[in-house]
Every structure is written in structure tokens, then in C-alpha cells.
Design goal:
CATH architecture: Alpha-Beta Barrel
Strand order of the largest sheet: 1-8-7-6-5-4-3-2
Number of helices: 10
Largest sheet: 8 strands, parallel
Radius of gyration: 18 Å
CATH superfamily: Phosphoenolpyruvate-binding domains
Number of domains: 1
Order of helices and strands: HEHEHHEHEHEHEHEHEH
Oligomer: single chain
CATH class: Alpha Beta
């Protein structure tokens, strides 16, 4: 496993404040990490917790912590770029989970609030920040609020206000950025940036999301793809398998990227 690298943490933080948003193509194992890291323009990596869980046969958020940390460590050791880890909700002890992730080589993380009561959610953010400080790493926390993911039938204005309130509280507690996942339109992204802060909002790009260029214009700091990158790979595998089972051939242009 790699040791904590304060320089990589500082670089990851700097990338969140660049004029252009940080685009992170999520990875889930060593080979996917190496393939993405080798692409022009790749400046950092982020793991996808859903994808890691799926690769072990678990539902999202239920992969054993030891297995998740092991994968994070293997990825961090395999590349020279800063690695941000998806730590789900931080598990039972967010501070200890963060300490273990740092020990494995991660210099940043997503930690979700799962819409816990705000004081509890803030305390968990503070625990992550303290763990980074204790390890001597300026750990880059992309604090996630599930306000939109768990909105149900709530009024959209109430959900937006909740996301902004939580985002501001997480920043005050030491988070570097606020992750608001969901299928968000331009107007909603713009209001999140206005309420939380320019270059402080992180979003996931899903089918139907605004284009990256437009998200950049709106002042978003970070754009990731979550489980969708693994889904793209699996879609290609499913199509190839179907073709081969019908007597077809391997696709032209297939490269030995492993």
C-alpha cells in the first residue's frame, strides 16, 4: 500500500479551483484505473463505490469495508495521480474509515449524508476532516448530500433549499466541495452554485444531464460519472458476448489494454 502523500492532496484540492471543472472518469479496479489514467487530460481518479460493490457481487454500499479499502489501496498504488475514494457514508466510524483510506493512499473522498439529521451529518463531516488533519494530509472531502436522490414527492423548492443548507454547513465543517447527485437541469445546477458557492459544487453526469461545457459555464467545480462508466464497459461486454455467441467475431480495433 502507498503512504499518504500531502502533495497529491494539495494537487487534488487545486484541481477543484481551476478555471475548468475537474472531470473524473470513475474507476473500480486496477485495470480500469490504469486505462483511465493513461488517457490524455486525466488529472486525477475517483473510485465508484457502486461499481466496486458490483464487482464483488454486493449491492451498493454493502461491500465489506476491508475489501473496499483494499481496492482503493491497489488503485492508488497502481497510478501516479491523486485518488479520491468513494467511502459510502463513512460506515460506523467515518474518522476511522478515512484514516484507513489515507493509509491506503487516498487523498480525498466522497462521504454521503444519507439525509441524516443535519447536526449528525455535520459531525460526521467534521470527523473526516479531523482524520485528515491527524494524518498530516490536507484531505479533500467531497461531502455528498442525498437531498435530491431521496427527495421522493417533496416539493422541489424545499429539496433545493435543503441541499443548499446542508452544502453550506458541510463547507463550514471543512469540506472542500459539496456533491449533489441526481438528474439535475441547468436551472437547478445554477441555483445550487449560487446558493453553495461557485467552484464548490460537484455533480454527477448521467444520461440527460447538461453537457460538461455548460456545467463549466454554470460554475461547477467537479463532474464525475459514478457507476455509469462501469455500465458502459458492461454494455460493451454484453454486446460482444451476444455477437460471439451468435458466431460473430471480436470487434475490430480491440486493444490489449490489460
Amino acid at each position: 500500500m502507498t503512504l499518504p502523500d500531502p502533495d497529491k492532496a494539495a494537487e487534488l484540492l487545486r484541481l477543484h479551483t481551476d478555471p475548468e471543472p475537474l472531470v473524473l472518469v470513475n474507476v473500480w479496479d486496477v485495470v480500469s484505473a490504469r486505462v483511465v489514467a493513461d488517457q490524455p487530460g486525466c488529472r486525477a481518479l475517483a473510485t465508484a463505490g457502486h461499481s466496486i460493490a458490483s464487482s464483488f457481487g454486493f449491492p451498493d454500499g454493502q461491500v465489506p469495508l476491508d475489501a473496499m479499502i483494499d481496492v482503493v489501496g491497489r488503485i492508488a498504488a497502481a497510478v501516479d495521480l491523486p485518488v479520491s475514494a468513494d467511502l459510502d457514508d463513512g460506515r460506523e466510524d467515518p474518522g476511522e474509515t478515512t484514516r484507513r483510506a489515507i493509509g491506503a493512499g487516498a487523498v480525498g473522498a466522497n462521504v454521503e449524508d444519507r439525509m441524516r439529521p443535519l447536526p449528525e451529518a455535520v459531525a460526521r463531516v467534521e470527523a473526516v476532516v479531523r482524520a485528515g488533519e491527524a494524518e498530516g494530509v490536507p484531505f479533500v472531502l467531497n461531502a455528498r448530500t442525498d437531498a435530491f436522490l431521496r427527495a421522493g414527492e417533496r416539493d422541489r423548492e424545499e429539496v433545493l433549499a435543503d441541499a443548499v443548507e446542508r452544502g453550506r454547513a458541510f463547507l463550514d465543517a471543512g469540506a472542500a466541495c459539496v456533491f449533489v447527485p441526481g438528474l439535475l437541469d441547468e436551472a437547478t445546477v445554477g441555483r445550487l452554485v449560487e446558493g453553495i458557492g461557485e467552484r464548490r459544487v460537484s455533480v454527477i453526469a448521467v444520461p440527460g444531464s447538461p453537457a460538461v461545457a455548460r456545467l463549466a459555464e454554470l460554475g461547477v467545480a467537479r463532474i464525475s460519472y459514478g457507476p455509469w462508466t462501469q455500465r458502459v464497459a458492461l454494455t460493451a461486454l454484453a454486446q460482444t458476448a451476444a455477437d460471439l455467441l451468435r458466431g460473430g467475431a471480436l470487434p475490430e480495433g480491440t486493444r490489449p489494454l490489460d
